[in-house]
Design a protein that fits this description.
The complex is a heterodimer of chains A (328) and B (443). With 328 residues, chain A is mostly helical. Chain A has helices at 18-28, 30-40, 42-67, 77-87, 95-108, 123-134, 136-140, 161-170, 175-179, 185-190, 202-214, 221-240, 248-253, 257-264, 275-295, 302-319; strands spanning 142-143, 157-158.
Chain lengths: 328, 443
């Protein structure tokens, strides 16, 4: 017998690990990735590979030369950032823009705060919003989708459903006229609407969401509160004036609402700790998204809404405490 | 199936010694009996060096309201009274006795006959438990008679009996329920009489289906006692969690179970109460589990207090080669001990021999704010915040964030994916805040 180790209890540890959680998220993104490959073909693979490998490279690079800590690139978090970044851009985006996106996401969004666990904002969203502002043309022209079975995606580009509606309404058309130009709700749900890789199919994202819930990586509070808030808030305006305001179901199924609610807003590092705080956070994201989509200059408001609420998260953590035992 | 709502974890149960029938461990050549085996003031030795003692004879006297008598677990001669390391890692005054034969006091009824006729009055029961040095055997070792003294104006609705044994590995309570069920139920009836209550609930986790079934058969003869299977979840054996699971009542922060009309006792304590009241037998032996993944013969032994744990290890066919840590108690709340000379005391429920590989803590990573610790905390606290604030010595924050509510169950450290020793820091903060509060109150 060697020397006995002495330590305080507990003497056993569960099988949770950072790696397990992060790779669990990666697995949950596989359905959406497959659907995007189905619709965008090789371009989807190209964008994903560039985004993920650039993210991994920058994670390694900054960890080695800036933070000088232990290697973190294999913990899975950089892969998630890369995948999410890929999900948030059009499939025809030039490679160098994707690399810049990864540099901003990992470099500014994550490593400048000190690396994993320290970032205030969701890194992939920081990258995405930077690209959206810096390269508005490339970031908002989406290839028209055509499933792999019809041959490789063609070069025609067109706006997303949200973009069509925004432009149409701004041009003075009524909702009915505008809605005639966009895919049906069923199509939006199953897949096949224009947009970035990850907004193509709400169904595939939902599938990943269930996977995350089952593995207890996310809680139901954030996605459900976001979606309900969007439904109710946009529903109120729709009920008041259905000729000027779009159907709430449309809001739910388009523009990366599902991707944002399930994969982006639920990022552990940048979302609140207590269940009540998570509910408040979700309501905030829902409200801001609808406000931006309805009255803002951008057709899409999800990214901004999440980033704004990321900034509020420390405050929410102070205000919303878990349900205490024996203090009611 | 009932359980508590807030938090909790489910570590692998590893109950290796479930089927091991309780065996009586041989009496060692020498016993080391610490005089502070209970919560409260240590007892004062009343024997001298060289004095002859019998089994059951008082050797140290309760020295305050919250204290307990200590009785000799063996017959023989007092070798000396000295400071000896106990499981907590501190040297504490102990009576060391060289064993000669096994001569019991005549007053103790050593027959196996089950005596269900309770002759003592409630007051006499309370005094008897005080005299016999009965303390809570679930782990906290709180003097039992104190729990029976109900202040005026308070009423006990339920006597709660803790047969949960939520710690992984341990099986001593399980075996006791299987083998001494009848005696235990009489003990419960005695406690009910002393507390003047008509209802007792025995909570047992449903990983002990045989014990639940066994007691359900026996309990029909006893008025007012009911058996309640509980969903397996740690720390259900925590007093507050058990009350919540069984009655739905929530003990207010900083208050005792009596505040919600409950008194909680362990099944082992109920058995000790039976022996004290019906057999006039002081508490000087108890059932101890000896277990571990590499242990050749995981067992449950009836052990005299003061027996060095090496005798238990020997009886379980030796210390495994790979042992890296020896724990007194369970893996979640037990204490890692210094060596195998540590004596068994009234509160020793088990000895766990952990392999070196399992005993090592994992590499600590950065907190990823996953909130798993918040989810796991059965008291609704935020372990990440308490831990961090303790580390930064922000004790005002630690106090404001209710560190004193922490029951130190370890669910947070257990569940943390980054391997952060949350509870280590929280304990530090809790200690400090405790001091700060005491100093403030003194002013």
């Amino acid at each position: 017998m060697s020397l006995l180790s002495i330590s305080a209890s507990p003497h056993v540890h569960g099988d949770n690990s950072v790696k397990k959680i992060m790779w669990g998220v990666v697995i949950a993104m596989v359905p959406a990735l497959l659907v995007s490959i189905y619709y965008f073909g090789l371009d989807a693979i190209r964008v994903t590979l560039i985004a993920v490998s650039a993210s991994l490279f920058f994670e390694w690079f900054f960890q080695k030369y800036l933070i000088k800590g232990p290697d973190t690139y294999m913990d899975g978090s950089a892969v998630i950032t890369g995948l999410l970044l890929a999900f948030n851009v059009p499939s025809n985006l030039p490679w160098w823009i994707i690399v810049i996106g990864a540099l901003v996401a990992i470099g500014i969004g994550k490593m400048s705060f000190g690396g994993i666990g320290k970032n205030v904002f969701n890194p992939a969203l920081v990258g995405r919003v930077f690209l959206l502002i810096s390269f508005p043309v490339q970031m908002t022209s989406w290839p028209k989708i055509s499933p792999i079975t019809n041959g490789i995606a063609d070069a025609i580009t067109g706006p997303t459903p949200l973009g069509i509606v925004k432009e149409g309404l701004d041009a003075g058309l009524t909702v009915d006229q505008v809605m005639a130009q966009v895919p049906s709700f069923m199509q939006q749900f199953i897949g096949g609407i224009g947009g970035s890789l990850g907004e193509v199919s709400a169904l595939a994202i939902l599938l990943g969401g269930f996977c995350l819930l089952r593995r207890k990586i996310i809680t139901w509070e954030i996605p459900v509160s976001i979606l309900l808030t969007v439904l109710v808030f946009s529903g109120i305006f729709w009920l008041i004036d259905p000729t000027h305001y779009v159907n709430p179901i449309f809001h739910l199924l388009t523009g990366g609402m599902m991707l944002g609610a399930i994969f982006m807003a639920t990022d552990m590092v940048s979302s609140p700790m207590s269940r009540n705080g998570q509910l408040a956070y979700g309501v905030g994201i829902g409200l801001i998204t609808v406000i931006i989509r309805t009255w803002g200059a951008y057709p899409e408001g999800m990214s901004f809404a999440i980033l704004l609420m990321n900034a509020v998260t420390p405050l929410l953590n102070n205000v919303f405490k878990p349900k205490r035992f024996g203090r009611n | 199936m009932k359980t508590f709502k807030l938090g909790g974890v489910h570590p692998p149960e590893n109950k290796l010694s479930t089927e091991a029938v309780i065996e009586t461990l041989m009496i060692p050549k020498q016993v080391v009996v610490p005089v502070g085996q209970h919560l409260g003031a240590p007892a004062t030795p009343v024997v001298k060096r060289g004095e002859e003692v019998k089994v059951g004879q008082l050797i140290a006297k309760s020295s305050g309201f919250i204290s307990a008598n200590i009785h000799s677990p063996v017959s023989g001669k007092v070798f000396k009274i000295d400071n000896v390391y106990d499981a907590s890692g501190f040297r504490r005054p102990s009576v060391i006795i060289n064993v000669e034969g096994d001569e019991w006091l005549d007053t103790i009824d050593r027959s196996d006959d089950i005596d269900s006729n309770i002759k003592l009055s409630p007051k006499e029961i309370t005094d008897k438990l005080n005299e016999m040095g009965i303390v809570g055997l679930g782990g906290a070792t709180f003097p039992s008679f104190v729990k029976l003294m109900i202040p005026d104006g308070k009423k006990v609705d339920y006597l709660i009996i803790n047969g949960v044994e939520c710690e992984p590995y341990l099986t001593s309570d399980h075996r006791l329920m299987m083998e001494k069920g009848e005696e235990m139920l009489i003990g419960v009836t005695i406690l009910m009489k002393a507390l003047n209550t008509k209802k007792a609930m025995i909570g047992i986790e449903n990983n002990k289906a045989d014990a639940i079934e066994h007691l359900q058969k026996l309990v029909v003869k006893y008025n007012g006692i009911s058996i309640h299977p509980l969903k397996v979840k740690y720390p259900q054996g925590g007093e507050k969690q058990l009350i919540k699971a069984l009655t739905g009542r929530e003990v207010p922060s900083g208050k005792l179970p009596l505040e919600v009309g409950c008194v909680v006792n362990n099944v082992g304590t109920a058995f000790a109460v039976y022996e004290a009241v019906q057999k006039n037998k002081p508490l000087f032996e108890r059932v101890v589990t000896i277990t571990g993944k590499s242990v050749k013969k995981p067992s449950n032994f009836l052990v005299r207090v003061g027996t060095p744990i090496k005798y238990l290890i020997e009886a379980a066919q030796g210390l495994p080669e790979d042992t890296g840590k020896i724990i007194s108690g369970g893996p979640m709340m037990g204490k890692a001990v210094l060596n195998t000379d540590i004596p068994v005391v009234k509160g020793t429920s088990g000895i766990l021999l952990m392999a070196d590989a399992d005993a090592k803590r994992g590499e600590v990573n950065t907190c990823i704010r996953c909130a798993k610790c918040v989810e796991a905390c059965p008291m609704g606290l935020e372990p990440f915040l308490l831990s961090k604030s303790s580390k930064l010595a922000k004790f005002d924050v630690v106090e404001k964030e209710l560190v004193m509510d922490c029951i130190e169950c370890g669910s947070c450290s257990y569940t943390c994916p980054s391997n952060i020793p949350l509870l280590d820091y929280i304990r530090l903060g809790k200690n400090k805040v405790g001091q700060i509060i005491r100093n403030r109150n003194q002013k």
